[in-house]
Amino acid sequence: MKLVIAEKPSVAKSIASALGAASRADGFYEGNGLIVSWCVGHLVSPMDAASYDERYKKWRYDDLPILPEPFRYVLAPGKEDAFYNLRSLMNRADVDTIVNACDAGREGELIFRLVYGMTGCTKKVERLWISSMEDSAIREGFKELRPGSEYDALYHSALCRQKADWLVGINATRLFSVLYHRTLNVGRVQTPTLAMLVERDGKISTFKKEKFHHVKLDLNGTEVLSERFQHLSQAQAALVNCSESEVVCTSVTKEQKKENPPKLYDLTTLQREANRIFGYTAKQTLEYAQSLYEKKLLTYPRTDSRYLTADMEETATVLVHLAAKLPPFDTCSNFYPLVSLTISDKDVTDHHAIIPTLEIEKANLKILPVGERNLLLLVCCKLLCAVGNPHIYDVVTATFECGGYDFTVKGKRDFVEGWREIDRIFRSSLKEQPDEDAPTRDFPDFTEGQTFRDVTVTICERFTSPPKSYTEDTLLSAMETAGKEDMPEDAERKGLGTPATRAAIIEKLVAAGFVERKGKSLIPTKDGINLVTVLPEPLTSPMLTAEWEQNLTAIARGEGDPDTFTDGICDMVRELVRKYTGISEEGQKLFAPDREIIGCCPRCGKPVYEGKKNFACSDRSCSFVLWKQDRFWTSRKKELTKKMAADLLKRGRTAVKGMWSEKKGDTYDATVVLDDTGGKFVKFKMEFPKKRKPAAQ
């Protein structure tokens, strides 16, 4: 009997259904000579540093670097039951073969191998490698199971990646956190990503806008601009010359251009366009896509390919016609799909591009959550655009002369709308603005020699624009291409991170307080900027990832040595710790929190800041401190507040209502006066309002 292990319960359910394992038990499905069970993501993870040695529980420079040998693994907290269930099933006497049905890729291979190794199982392993959860794809994949040993090199590549990330992440994070007295998360992917945000923010903050001017002609509703004038006086002189002159069209040129259909989606381009059109974060898009995959409406989303394989051409043709029947695409005219445009075996790695599945024919899209429905229609739109006709248009440039100055206007005229019609119809259904690259319609038919009189002439003031802040759309694009020129053409991964991990990287930077969202923009915080400033260049440059991926690709092919790679990472970590031994006092202030000054110390004049338990002088050599739970206050059932402390520091007194008198068993109001004599503890005294004498009768 074969035991099939999927990565998630929902995937196991789909596999069991497709293969006839219909009987549900506690933790598995069974039937048709199969048992189907599941992991819950990573069941086994690298051991935390503190688990290797008690002394690592505290972060100290003297304990670095931490280089475990051998690496050890533990069960992921909260997932023990899932692991014990799999171990029990693997040990069943009637199970002779284990089928690895985890996600077909580097990380899926790692998830299965670590569980298999932790159980101590030695039974034969076979590999299921599929890109769709449709029943037909699962059954076809099961007919072509491969020996698990064929993927040993892929596993070693994944294991090296995990070890390297642990070694650099743990050591660099502890090193710089200890030096700067602030938790500073350092990672091979997230730190260069943060560096890109910081670099862009620096260009924006140092940008100095410059004013310039144009003279503008209104030709029957069409705005025509002069060349740029740096000085207003130049534009005013041109205005005077043009105001009484006629305008003559000196030339009209047309250049026909062709815009080929776009490629299909990989995960990153899907996340980018979903952010641009719907405002979804990369994490949201991945979650919606994963849910659609598990509902069998979408193919595997964690892909970096934008093509299909030749054996999918017939299925793709059927899918195109099904998608074309869905509203709003059913209003498209003259649609003759060219499916061959989407086929390229050499451009498909682990998985083909993201496309809908045949299940869309019978699915009720109206009952899908709005985020999932929008995403599915977006993928359908891209499929239809990708097989559409080229968009052919004319780029028209008209030039004019007026008062001795030249004026120019450019526009576009559609010749064949082609795939752009599908995109336009989809965006209109969402009440979206047309794509910025869409052609401008109704461009006037200017002709050479045409003249205009009594034209309105004005001056318009313009400014140069700074670079734009990154959005998730543009940051994902930058991550995808970062360091690309330094990677081999056939590297498995290019850029920073993988399509599946880029969303999580962005979320980690936000959660750590290094990046914040402002609308759609991603802005580095003060701590984020400072972190990039203090880290060495190798940790902030995409080059580290480029070098790793080059080596990991070689290992995955059986051409590289895992031990040599890991030894190199250990050497790099040792050198990092050796080089950074201390930080100046000024440097340590970089990550000091921005604290509100409550007042000035009455003893030395330095700022007084609020702490968890007190209001204390910022000068450590000065002993002035106001305790919130001072016995003076607690005995009167009061706590020293920030306002009260500010009053005491500014005026030497504060009015307090409702203080408790133990002696009288009642409350009273009084003015508390700061009576500081310079001792270890600050003293207070009280003043009471004088009682008025009764008026004479």
The beta-strand count equals 25
CATH architecture of the largest domain: 3-Layer(aba) Sandwich
Please state how the strands of the largest beta sheet are arranged side by side: 2-3-4-1-7-8-9
CATH fold-level name of the largest domain: Rossmann fold
- The oligomeric status of these chains comes to single chain
Q: What is the structural class? A: alpha+beta
Strand percentage, roughly?
Answer: 15-25%
Q: Share of helix among residues?
A: 25-40%
Walkthrough of the structure:
- By secondary structure, the chain is an alpha+beta fold.
- The protein folds into five domains: 2-160, Rossmann fold (3-Layer(aba) Sandwich), CATH 3.40.50; 172-204 and 474-486 and 498-586, Topoisomerase I, domain 2 (Orthogonal Bundle); 211-260 and 392-463, Topoisomerase I, domain 3 (Distorted Sandwich); 267-389, Orthogonal Bundle (Topoisomerase I, domain 4), CATH 1.10.290.10; 598-687, no CATH class.
- The protein is 36% helix and 20% strand.
- It is built from 22 helices and 25 strands.
- The strands form six sheets. A seven-stranded mixed β-sheet has the order 2-3-4-1-7-8-9, sandwiched between helices.
- β10 and β11 form a beta hairpin.
- α4 packs across α6 (152-180).
- The termini are far apart.
